[in-house]
Write a structure and sequence with these properties.
Blueprint lengths: L2 H7 L1 H6 L2 H34 L6 H8 L3 H4 L6 H25 L6 H16 L2 H7 L5 H4 L14 H11 L7 H22 L5 H17 L1
Helix pairs in contact: 3-4, 3-6, 3-8, 6-7, 7-12, 11-12
């Protein structure tokens, strides 16, 4: 059934003559269907990338498992590497989001205590084999990727906003708060991965106190 026939036969048209309402309903259904297909592609790709790695995962593998036509894939992503970038950014953002929500349920007088709590929560999440294997050293993508614009809740307060707001509220003398946070996240991203995977320079539980001490120094000095 085409759009014109739908408009003629649609009960809302016959009963109320409301073309506007019918068109709005059509657009809503199309948008819901589009978002559902995108979610299927993202969830399927995350599973396959985590299990097989991106090199051994083809676009055909993704669309087959997702139950979506191959041509539809290219309406959302130009290739599997763009899909990987979106997934990396989305996954790391979700890690920060979960940790920040947990932090807001606690009482912290000091910003460094709150950030250490958040980082510790994230480490507990990424030690899971599939998450660590997929995200590797790309933790900061959840803070700065432009690919997340259409995937995130705009009202959500992330770690970047949390950090900058508290620096101002607590009058912490950091000249460039965002740069300090970026350095902290990059430090965590690279060193934690190596510590967990290779136990270098120390196994993660032995490494944490040294990492947290450095984080406190970056915030307080």
């Amino acid at each position: 059934i085409n759009s014109l026939t739908f408009l003629i036969l649609h009960p809302k048209i016959n009963a109320k003559g409301s073309v506007f309402m019918a068109i709005k309903e059509i657009k809503s259904k199309i948008n819901d269907n589009k978002q559902e297909k995108e979610r299927k592609l993202l969830n399927t790709a995350l599973h396959l990338f985590s299990e097989k790695g991106i090199k051994k995962t083809s676009i055909q593998d993704i669309v087959k498992d997702a139950g979506i036509a191959k041509g539809t894939f290219y309406l959302y992503f130009k290739d599997k590497y763009e899909l990987q970038d979106v997934l990396l950014a989305k996954t790391s953002h979700e890690l920060f989001s979960k940790a920040c929500k947990e932090a807001t349920q606690q009482q912290f007088d000091r910003l460094d205590d709150k950030i250490v709590f958040i980082i510790d929560s994230i480490i507990e999440l990424i030690v899971r084999p599939n998450i660590l294997k997929f995200i590797q050293k790309n933790l900061s993508l959840g803070l700065y990727s432009e690919k997340l614009t259409d995937l995130l809740d705009s009202e959500e307060l992330g770690i970047k906003e949390l950090f900058v707001n508290e620096v101002k509220e607590k009058d912490i003398p950091l000249e460039y708060p965002e740069m300090t946070l970026f350095m902290i996240i990059e430090l965590v991203s690279s060193t934690v991965f190596t510590s967990i995977v290779e136990s270098h320079p120390l196994p993660i539980e032995e490494f944490k106190p040294h990492l947290y001490k450095t984080i406190r120094l970056l915030i307080n000095e």
